[in-house]
Inverse folding.
């Protein structure tokens, strides 16, 4: 049974199309929406406008439960744009602490900040919209603008309930206004403390001043067991899902017997090593940041900062030599191979000099300025490398380039403190994006390859004293919030090639063919229909204009009294009218249209040519004759242009997988030994025959079932083919979809089956798949089938395989094939496909 609102909304979508996200949102955001952010907005739009049970409810109150770092503020920005379209102009944003306000003003108001979430110009319904920050009360609210008042919950409560001050907001301000209340980090509102219950009552009072008022809560730590929120949680995206989707860093706990100074030194050496790795392997300059978490008290933080500066100023090569000797961390061992120790001491002194460090606590006189500095740590002109803080940064602080947290308090820690530190680690777990090959820059890339040196850029280290009870409790808390696997759920396994394969010519000189993603050739897109089909040319409208109120219905609505039929052709419009409409839609400016139609010669061609707007007709049924004046024509034009814009925007992609494949040496991509980490790897795969090229190892249940299947048919394969080899593919060979809608997306099929007979060489991509992932990964299954289809239709071309005159490929016949997903439950269907492809054919 579905108890939560978001589950009911998801059930509603079963058989119902999800709503389009308005261009007023997507065209005005600085950053594109991620898939889960789109889902959150689709749920919200459904609740507000589609679902009969909810759309007309008064005083709507919703909660977005979304992980720290998942972009809640981007959803807030999107919601503001959406609600502006629905007629809302006045917004109150309230939080628990002032430092969250400082960050959010940068996000939503300061267009000069690199953290600003909107485009430089916000255009809605062809009008430029300004963001107006309300400092005191809403008397200066402007109906043509987005008006936002930023405050804390306790100040909001004080202004409305306790103290009457000049210019402060009052309930009277909202008698004739409909407002949106936005509560960020709203878990403070459902607290059991009496004063916080009073704050919450104030919010409820304000919400009820107008039945159209809306309350939106955003939090990463909702108490979902509280039934009060069952009908309010519009979207649920917890930290565990955020991490599973690879949008977070991995957390590594570093606990050792080093002294505090050695622990600090080890951390800054690792930080500098990250910089070296980024430069060496990615040709990228980065600035990793370290946070030193101090025990409570200004004296403690000031003393620790002074000690740190003293350590850096007096740093000697001997100090580093001691770390190299005492530390067993892989990063430290790798660093030692790369540096000259004297030069590295100078480098550390420069990187962590006093001017590159920042001390902040809640009573700092320059706290606001420092918070602004901290919220822009990724800026090129921000040189801060080390931060000393106590608890002020536990909330409202998101930074991508925080890679290390060093706990300076060596005292025994309470359970409450452990929870707080786990949440702080969560704040630093946001992924640091970087480009690597064709992988998604915003997601982890080396989950199965943690021996890769670049993996350290996907990890955040938490350095602490080695107290077993503390580390145990911290791991427990990190597991609870989803930032760390339970120890029993993940295994480290080693894939080791068999000696027989290492000595085989297939390993020494063999290849695997892969394709690249390439830019889409826009020359073939010479009409609107080539993107979205031709249905846009026939617009159908039903208009009931029998009374003073004109009602326009969707084309599906059938009304018996609509007896007047009218056909309106765009070709009969005055050109200037069409130009007026186009000028209201920047998307249709000629410079933008050329991105879609590179052969388009002029805006006049776009207006008059039948391949574009020239053949559009409106077929209208109405109660009586329509007054077809210029305003009516422009309204029709704007509506059809809006529809075309939405469809073109959603259908345009930039990349596609090439049909041209090139060879990659197996020995270059498959190392003799590789260590990986796998979840659900309880099944032992132990195949002694040489056709399976790896020594015994663990794998998933589906991988084990697949290799067992190949084992069952292996004798028949060996009788028919002189060479049979099955390779597990661990990020070695990536292929990219031929479907333009996938925008060049690629994946690495789990296995490669290589077969050779007297006539030909076969390279077969295979993918065992859990049944629960069939729908989600359907595009991969379709792509594997497409590979076989395109090979059979001779669409795939291969670079010369034998330019080096390798005897292995002397017959020059090479076929690339893909098999549909393997699942043990459907093994009979897979077996039939397999036998027909490789054993029953001639």
């Amino acid at each position: 049974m579905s108890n939560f609102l978001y589950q009911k909304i998801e059930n509603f979508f079963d058989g119902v199309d999800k709503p389009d996200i308005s261009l007023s949102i997507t065209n005005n955001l600085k950053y594109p929406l991620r898939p889960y952010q789109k889902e959150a907005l689709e749920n919200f739009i459904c609740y507000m406008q589609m679902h009969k049970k909810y759309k007309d409810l008064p005083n709507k109150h919703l909660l977005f439960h979304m992980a720290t770092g998942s972009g809640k503020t981007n959803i807030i920005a999107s919601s503001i744009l959406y609600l502006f379209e629905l007629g809302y102009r006045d917004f109150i944003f309230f939080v628990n602490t002032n430092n969250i306000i400082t960050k959010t003003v940068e996000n939503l108001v300061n267009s000069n900040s690199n953290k600003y979430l909107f485009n430089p110009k916000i255009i809605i319904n062809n009008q430029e919209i300004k963001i107006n920050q309300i400092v005191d009360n809403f008397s200066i609210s402007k109906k043509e603008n987005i008006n936002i008042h930023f405050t804390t919950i306790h100040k909001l409560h004080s202004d409305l309930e306790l103290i009457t001050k000049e210019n402060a907001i009052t309930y009277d301000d909202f008698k004739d206004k409909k407002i949106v209340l936005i509560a960020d980090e709203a878990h403070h509102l459902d607290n059991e403390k009496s004063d916080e219950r009073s704050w919450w009552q104030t919010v409820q009072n304000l919400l009820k001043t107008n039945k159209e008022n809306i309350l939106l809560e955003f939090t990463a730590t909702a108490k979902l067991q509280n039934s009060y929120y069952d009908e309010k949680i519009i979207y649920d995206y917890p930290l565990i899902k955020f991490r599973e989707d690879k949008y977070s860093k991995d957390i590594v706990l570093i606990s050792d017997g080093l002294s505090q100074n050695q622990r600090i030194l080890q951390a800054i050496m690792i930080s500098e090593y990250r910089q070296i790795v980024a430069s060496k392997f990615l040709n990228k300059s980065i600035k990793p940041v370290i946070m030193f978490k101090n025990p409570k008290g200004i004296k403690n933080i000031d003393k620790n900062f002074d000690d740190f500066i003293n350590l850096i100023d007096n740093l000697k090569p001997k100090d580093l030599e001691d770390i190299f000797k005492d530390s067993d961390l892989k990063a430290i061992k790798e660093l030692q191979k790369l540096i000259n120790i004297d030069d590295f001491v100078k480098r550390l002194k420069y990187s962590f000099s006093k001017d590159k460090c920042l001390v902040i606590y809640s009573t700092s006189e320059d706290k606001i300025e420092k918070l602004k500095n901290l919220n822009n740590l990724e800026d090129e002109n921000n040189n801060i490398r080390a931060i000393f803080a106590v608890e002020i940064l536990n909330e409202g602080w998101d930074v991508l380039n925080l890679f290390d947290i060093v706990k300076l308090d060596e005292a025994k820690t309470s359970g409450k403190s452990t929870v707080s530190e786990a949440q702080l680690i969560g704040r630093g777990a946001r992924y640091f994006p970087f480009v690597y090959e064709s992988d998604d820059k915003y997601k982890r890339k080396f989950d199965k390859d943690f021996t890769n040196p670049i993996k350290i850029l996907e990890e955040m280290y938490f350095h602490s004293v080695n107290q077993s009870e503390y580390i145990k409790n911290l791991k427990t808390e990190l597991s609870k919030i989803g930032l760390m696997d339970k120890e029993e759920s993940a295994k480290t396994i080693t894939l080791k090639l068999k000696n027989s394969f290492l000595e085989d010519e297939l390993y020494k000189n063999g290849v695997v063919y892969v394709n690249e993603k390439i830019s889409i050739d826009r020359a073939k897109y010479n009409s609107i229909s080539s993107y979205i089909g031709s249905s846009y040319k026939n617009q159908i409208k039903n208009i009931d204009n029998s009374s003073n109120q004109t009602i326009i219905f969707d084309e599906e609505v059938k009304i018996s009294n609509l007896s007047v039929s009218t056909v309106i052709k765009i070709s009969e419009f005055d050109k200037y009218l069409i130009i007026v409409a186009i000028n209201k839609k920047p998307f249709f400016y000629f410079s933008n249209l050329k991105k879609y139609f590179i052969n388009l010669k002029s805006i006049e061609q776009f207006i008059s040519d039948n391949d574009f707007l020239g053949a559009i007709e409106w077929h209208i049924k109405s109660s009586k004759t329509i007054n077809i004046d210029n305003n009516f024509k422009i309204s029709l034009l704007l509506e059809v242009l809006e529809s075309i814009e939405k469809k073109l925007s959603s259908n345009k992609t930039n990349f596609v997988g090439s049909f041209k494949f090139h060879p990659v040496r197996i020995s270059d991509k498959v190392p003799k030994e590789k260590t990986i980490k796998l979840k659900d790897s309880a099944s032992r795969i132990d195949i002694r025959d040489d056709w399976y090229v790896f020594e015994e190892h663990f794998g998933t249940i589906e991988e084990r079932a697949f290799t067992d299947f190949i084992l069952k048919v292996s004798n028949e394969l060996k009788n028919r083919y002189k060479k049979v080899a099955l390779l597990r593919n661990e990020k070695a060979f990536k292929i990219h979809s031929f479907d333009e809608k996938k925008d060049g997306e690629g994946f690495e099929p789990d296995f490669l089956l290589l077969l050779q007979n007297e006539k030909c060489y076969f390279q077969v991509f295979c993918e065992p798949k859990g049944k629960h992932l069939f729908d989600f990964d359907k595009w991969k299954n379709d792509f594997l089938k497409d590979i076989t289809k395109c090979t059979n239709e001779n669409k795939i071309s291969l670079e010369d395989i034998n330019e080096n005159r390798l005897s292995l490929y002397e017959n020059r016949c090479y076929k690339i094939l893909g098999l549909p997903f393997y699942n043990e439950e459907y093994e009979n269907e897979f077996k039939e496909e397999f036998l027909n492809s490789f054993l029953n054919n001639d």
Notes: DSSP finds 27 helices and 32 strands in the chain. The chain has a mean pLDDT of 87. Residues 524-650 form one domain.
